[in-house]
Design brief:
The protein is built from 21 helices and 21 strands. The strands form 5 sheets. Strands 11-12-13-14-21-18-17-16 form an 8-stranded antiparallel β-sheet. It has a 5-stranded antiparallel β-sheet with strand order 5-6-7-8-9, covered by helices on one side. The chain has a 4-stranded antiparallel β-sheet with strand order 10-15-20-19, with no helix packed on it. By secondary structure, it is an alpha+beta fold. A hairpin with a 6-residue loop joins strand 17 and strand 18. The protein is globular, with a radius of gyration of 26 Å.
């Protein structure tokens, strides 16, 4: 990795020392020369009437909008509400709550904290100050222009000029406030790439609007060309590679296609395809899982690559075989991880990032990401009815089908209306360490992974041998999420710590040491081994262990066996943990983070008390209670999406032990009080 790191550092250093002090004028001649056009009239004529590249529909988007509306009742009302918010400059971003930003949108401001970055070259900006409490992700999210697609969808649906007028006004305002290379919204190429693709979609949705005249179209082409050049010159190609670099390359491919036949655009396309093949070979394991140890970022990378492959196929551009192969594997991982309620388990970081958000109910999604909607796109792209069945299409909410119809039109509409039979199966992704046990109406996802990104950490958490438990559409035990990055580094460290996951902690040691102010790194202290994984007619099981050097000279270990017994209908966790020196006494803390449900503690038994449906009881078996010091129910936090957190119960058991002792904990699902009492007595009696 050293040559790659050194080259990236040299590039960054050169960018810094050669940075202009004021924005450079990007004249019309530069644009004409880039497109090899005689004059602006020829350039605009070629842009307006060209048959290549093709977009996802031809000409007016109104027909596509009508098709989506016909299959998603309530779409018009949802879009109108979202469109009205954008027209009023009212945004709810990254936990801000609904906030009106005024007549002039503050594009360079973290409006949650009030901090504004100056319009200086991005290399001279102080993007992060861990003690100041501001978050550069807020202006980044706003300037990704996801909301511009909403304006485009509203225009395609209604034909009302106010949406196109607003789009044009926001573009012109943004261009003035954010000249190329200046301000925080040019601080990394990933943001530039996501913005460019969203602007392309918005423009195509509204390109028939009279407000988008020749002058605006020329400025739009100029801006996209600046975006492409910026990405090409500022690729985030260091080590370890991350979702940022994948986004850069997907952006190059999109702009390389959209701005053809410009010779420079063709170079972007070739570069993007070549490097994307290389990166996916590295960043996506053979089992299909993204190597950053985050299920949310796996979803984001899949979304970026899938849309890019779809755009290439639409324009008859051959993707390298490794890209399609890895993409199919990534979608298979989503099928395997998908919870019964349609969400993904939150392994590692979640920043709610999106490439494109075409559904009309994004703000209602728990994480802000749409796993089922993306899976539907992948199913139509690869012609996989089994993936449509896994996403429960067409039985689920019609909102989950909106994205695939926006993309593929009648082809998608025909696909999702076929009757399908879904078979839910357990799944294992050994390279990532992700295991899913599905039994009857129960679902348990277990994370047996090591540090992500080649040991660097990046978006990994201290969540080895942690799990989520869902039954009958209700999430009971969940991963608390991420909440924040640089805007609150202390909270960031709390949410990625061992105690924030459903696992066992030895003497308050972290399983990987956490550098306090290095927010995207974990010390590479643990090694995980899966001993057994399987099922038979009576039970399903997973047996895994990690050892850690995080305590210095004393090696820590935790071995956990997950079992589901079909006859009794319960889960059993068997834990051994402590020091490699078995004679050294230790205190163990076992954590169970509940979803935001009512929970009561009676002695050593914690139970959800939901008024309807199934409930869950958690209690240790008698054979392990001699080591139990306390059982405590606390109020903790869960963060389903970035910047949002809510109170939820946390059960903590403390065990004091002088020698390695098996700690057995039951997770029992039941429907009534009588059922609970009888089954608990039976289990406690059997444990003797």
């Amino acid at each position: 990795a050293y040559p790659r790191v050194a080259w990236q550092l040299l590039r960054q250093r050169w960018t810094t020392v050669s940075a202009p002090t004021k924005p450079r004028e990007y004249g019309e001649r530069v644009l004409l020369r880039a497109f090899q056009a005689r004059d602006r009239e020829q350039l605009l004529a070629d842009f307006e009437i060209r048959d290549v590249p093709r977009f996802f529909w031809q000409g007016n988007a109104a027909g596509r909008a009508a098709l989506v509306t016909a299959r998603s009742p309530g779409l018009a009302a949802r879009l109108q509400q979202c469109g009205d918010d954008v027209l009023a400059h009212r945004f709810d971003l990254l936990g801000s709550g609904s906030t009106e930003l005024g007549a002039s949108i503050p594009w360079r401001c973290d409006f949650k904290s009030g901090h504004t970055w100056p319009c200086q070259h991005f290399t001279r900006l102080n993007l992060v100050d861990l003690d100041a409490g501001f978050d550069v992700k807020v202006p980044w999210e706003l300037s990704r222009f996801h909301h511009a697609i909403t304006l485009g969808q509203c225009f395609a649906l209604t034909g009302e000029s106010r949406y196109a007028t607003e789009f044009m006004a926001q573009l012109q305002d943004w261009w003035v406030d954010n000249p190329c290379g200046f301000g925080p919204n040019w601080a990394n190429a990933m943001e530039v790439a996501i913005r460019a693709v969203n602007l392309i979609w918005a423009y195509e949705l509204m390109r028939t609007a009279p407000q988008l005249d020749n002058q605006l179209s020329l400025a739009f082409l100029k801006s996209l060309f600046q975006h492409g050049r910026f990405i090409a010159r500022n690729l985030e190609a260091g080590w370890p590679g991350s979702n940022h670099f994948v986004a850069d390359l997907c952006g190059l491919i999109w702009l390389g296609i959209y701005l053809r036949p410009a010779p420079e655009a063709n170079r972007w396309l070739r570069t993007g395809l070549r490097l994307l093949a290389r990166e996916l070979r590295t960043q996506v394991y053979a089992d299909g899982a993204d190597y950053e140890a985050s299920s949310s970022y796996h979803l984001l990378v899949t979304e970026m690559v899938l849309w890019t492959c779809a755009y290439c196929q639409l324009n008859e551009i051959s993707m390298p075989a490794i890209v399609r192969e890895r993409l199919a594997g990534m979608l298979t991982v989503i099928v395997g991880l998908l919870r019964p309620d349609g969400e993904m388990p939150l392994f590692g970081d979640c920043d709610s990032g999106r490439w494109l958000a075409l559904e009309s109910d994004t703000e209602r999604l728990r994480t802000g990401q749409d796993a089922r909607g993306l899976l539907a796109v992948g199913a139509v792209f690869f012609d996989r009815d089994d993936w449509l069945a896994a996403a429960a299409i067409p039985e689920l909410k019609p909102e989950r089908c909106e994205t695939v119809i926006w993309a593929f039109g009648e082809q998608a509409a025909a696909s999702i209306e076929r009757p399908l039979q879904n078979e839910c199966r357990s799944a294992v992704f050994p390279d990532a360490g992700w295991h899913v046990l599905r039994v009857d109406d129960g679902y348990m996802a277990v994370n047996a992974s090591e540090n992500g990104a080649g040991g660097w950490g990046l978006h990994a958490h201290n969540d080895a041998l942690s799990f989520e438990l869902v039954a009958e559409q209700r999430a009971f035990i969940v991963d608390p999420g991420s909440y924040a990055y640089t805007g609150d580094y202390r909270a960031r460290n709390v949410f990625r710590a061992t105690a924030a996951h459903n696992t066992v902690q030895v003497d308050a040691h972290e399983m990987n040491r956490i550098p306090e102010r290095d927010l995207f790194r974990l010390s590479d202290d643990i090694r995980v081994r899966v001993h057994q994984w399987g099922s038979d007619n009576t039970r399903s099981w997973l047996d895994a262990k990690y050892v850690s050097r995080a305590a210095g000279r004393e090696m820590l270990y935790h071995r956990r066996r997950f079992e589901f017994f079909r006859e009794g209908g319960y889960w059993l966790l068997t834990d051994y943990a402590g020091y490699a020196d078995a004679g050294k006494p230790s205190e163990l803390r076992a954590y169970f983070h509940f979803a935001a449900l009512p929970v009561e503690l009676d002695g050593l038994t914690a139970r959800t008390v939901c008024a309807d449906g199934a409930n869950l009881a958690v209690f240790p078996l008698s054979a392990g209670t001699r080591a139990v010091a306390t059982a405590e129910l606390q109020q903790g936090w869960i963060s389903p999406r970035y910047g949002v957190r809510e109170r939820a119960p946390v059960l903590q058991y403390r065990f004091s032990q002088r020698e390695s002792t098996a700690i057995k904990t039951v997770l029992l699902l039941y429907e009534s009080e009588e059922e609970f009492e009888s089954r608990r007595r039976a289990l406690q009696g059997a444990s003797h």
